[in-house]
Amino acid sequence: MKLKHVLTTCVYCGCGCGIHLVCDGEKVIGSYPSGNHPVSNGALCVKGWNIYEFINKSDRLTNPLIKENGVFKEAKWEKALSLTASRLKEISEKYGPDSVAFLSSAKTTNEENYLMMKLSRAVFKTNNVDHCARLCHASTVVGLAATFGSGAMTNSIDEFEEAEVFLVTGSDTTAQHPLIGSRIVNSVLEKNAKLIVIDPRKIELSKYAQVYCAQKNGTDVAWINGMMNVIITEDLQDKEYIKERVDEFEALKELVREYTPEKVEEITSIPKEKLIEAARIYAKAKKAMIVYAMGITQHTTGVDNVKSLANLAMLSGHVGFDCTGVNPLRGQNNVQGACDMGALSNVFSGYQKVVDEAARKKFEKAWGVENLPDKVGLTVTEIIDGAATGKIKGLYIVGENPVISDPDSTHVRKALENLEFLAVQDIFMTDTSEYADVVLAGASFAEKDGTFTNTERRCERIRKAIDCVGTSKADWEIICEIAKRCGYDGMNYSHPSEIMDEIAAVTPIYGGMAYDRLDPWGLQWPCPDKAHPGTKFLHKGKFSKGKGTFMPCAYKPPAELPDKEYDFTLSTGRVYWHWHTGTLTRRTSTLEREAPEAYVEMHPENAEKLKVRTGSLVKVTSRRGSIDIKVKVTEEVVKDSVFIPFHFKEAAANVLTNPAVDPVAKIPEYKVCAVKVEKI
Ligand SMILES: Nc1nc2c(c(=O)[nH]1)N[C@H]1C(S)=C(S)[C@@H](COP(=O)(O)OP(=O)(O)OC[C@H]3O[C@@H](n4cnc5c(=O)[nH]c(N)nc54)[C@H](O)[C@@H]3O)O[C@H]1N2
Ligand SMILES: Nc1nc2c(c(=O)[nH]1)N[C@H]1C(S)=C(S)[C@@H](COP(=O)(O)OP(=O)(O)OC[C@H]3O[C@@H](n4cnc5c(=O)[nH]c(N)nc54)[C@H](O)[C@@H]3O)O[C@H]1N2
Ligand code: SF4
Ligand SMILES: [Mo]
């Protein structure tokens, strides 16, 4: 049999590696890296190498399911689609447009995200549409838009090869963005780049760092202000740059004055000598890149953390040039794209605001509708809260698993139970789809055409390698079918490339995108017209919004701190081997073999006090709930802190986490809450 090799894009992380799927006609039987792809460059991480395994798993959803008397039964598409459309329409008509909501998916394509927000806005007349970026980089989108004018990663992945200094904080880069992490390690080992790592866990990168400090969780604003205090005290700021390009220097200077290294040491436990050393290295470099992820964003002060990093970069003149910038590493394969496409409660595609009348008029004309909703909709966590209180009655979820991924799972379960109608569209059954009235069988990335936009704003193709499994359908087709059954005739496409043409027509930053231009390695936005080559780094010459703005922030502690009863700080996150709620990686034998079960990391001194060792069972309890879980004793966590990866539903970290959110970005504080640990 002749094997087919199809070039596509990895469906896991925001690195966006180019991957070849090997197909024997019906099934995908292998995968290997693209040698020429600008990111993967002949390499993949373990998830990419094993990506083929989940695609043809026997428990893939092959038909839609309808729940009858509490039991799911396979159904014909016509029935499942009509039921979904009619129930959502009925609810919308009975209780008003804002009684329904839509969760879109950073796992699906740009085209599919565009259609989800079009369905929500044009057909259901509500801005209640959002997706997992809310749990992830919502703070980035707000914080960088405010300071720089654009919420995206400023620079590109290949620039990591030439930077002189990296400041990495709140990003376990080698584990979560392996193809970026390996570039940092190479630059340190082979090109003498300097590395500063500030992270409460002793992550892999800390071993390569000139300066490594473990701060107390949730104290980032303090040490970032402290670095700026040192820079200004030692007169190391870039005066020319500030004068020409940034406003509000005096306000910044005033605020950071009180963050002396001594005071910062008290708040963060970072030794003052190390803080001073880090500040000097960063400020004196010509080409210095800041790299961050969830350790910065997932806090009730997420936006302040991001603004503070932006302040630091502008103070040192490290934005707007090659190998510099503030580089939030976007997590999911297409979370950048899902944001770009406007699967957010406040913007259309290209960050055009729903409150802006001119933007609404433009989309009304393009979509052939009237009266697009003009007030900002509900976010992921507000939609769940709304379901719990009865404000949201109907919900359509595509490619997300909030029962395991949202904070305070017990609350999420109650909220979903309270809905009058829930449709879930996924490629597998999940803990979330168990609550559905209708389950719609989607096609995986291997079975459809489309585009993903990676963390460096590179919009690249995914390509159909095999036919859909069973009767499952591509998400874009399902969404169009639902729109049609709601009586809307503005969603007729014969191929995703036509959807991209529509996106390009209404979205200035994607104006030059078209499928024939995206072969083979895609284009980086902003790409305003068909002749434009794409943009490697942002803010060249001036900031997207004109002048940058220093936005000084005072330190505020996390919402829930340890006390006498709940005496540990819990932080949650990920491991190299698994992906979020585990739907894909826990079906992949190589990955499951390496990390088969949940555990709580604990410092040896705490383990000794509790009389537990690696493998002992403990009960971890927060004010929200409790789980039984095995201990892993390790010096990777600091004393009195514990860490739990959130991949394992048997001991789900989110039973414990605090749903408190950042007041502006509405992102939950997954990185800090208080728990107690008892030996079982
Ligand atoms: N293998 C794998 N890779 C992934 C994912 C996955 O599930 N599995 N998910 C993807 C997604 S969507 C995302 S968003 C990214 C996330 O990628 P990362 O953000 O790198 O991953 P996390 O494990 O959530 O946490 C990051 C780091 O934050 C640190 N941290 C905890 N608290 C604090 C704090 O208060 N301050 C600071 N500065 N740091 C703190 C942790 O110690 C950890 O090293 O990964 C992507 N890549
Ligand atoms: N405690 C704690 N919780 C967290 C975090 C944390 O650090 N700590 N991190 C948060 C972050 S950053 C993120 S991004 C979220 C992620 O949260 P989720 O997005 O809910 O997690 P995933 O497991 O990635 O869920 C994606 C779903 O999409 C399905 N899927 C895959 N491909 C397709 C497709 O082509 N079509 C359809 N229809 N479905 C598909 C998968 O089967 C899976 O069920 O979790 C958040 N939750
Ligand atoms: S680094 Fe990310 S994109 Fe590349 S193979 Fe691994 S998971 Fe896929
Ligand atoms: Mo994420």
Describe this structure in words.
- With 680 residues, this protein is an alpha/beta fold.
- The protein has four domains: 53 residues, ADC-like domains (N-terminal domain of TfIIb), CATH 2.20.25; 227 residues, 3-Layer(aba) Sandwich (Rossmann fold), CATH 3.40.50.740; 192 residues, 3-Layer(aba) Sandwich (Dimethylsulfoxide Reductase, domain 2), CATH 3.40.228.10; 112 residues, Barwin-like endoglucanases (Beta Barrel).
- Helices cover 32% and strands 18% of the residues.
- The chain is built from 24 helices and 28 strands.
- The chain has a seven-stranded mixed sheet, with helices on both faces. Strands 21-25-22-24-23-28 form a six-stranded mixed barrel.
- β4 and β5 form a beta hairpin.
- α3 crosses α20, α8 packs antiparallel against α11 and α17 packs across α19.
- The structure holds ligand MGD (2 copies), iron/sulfur cluster and molybdenum atom.
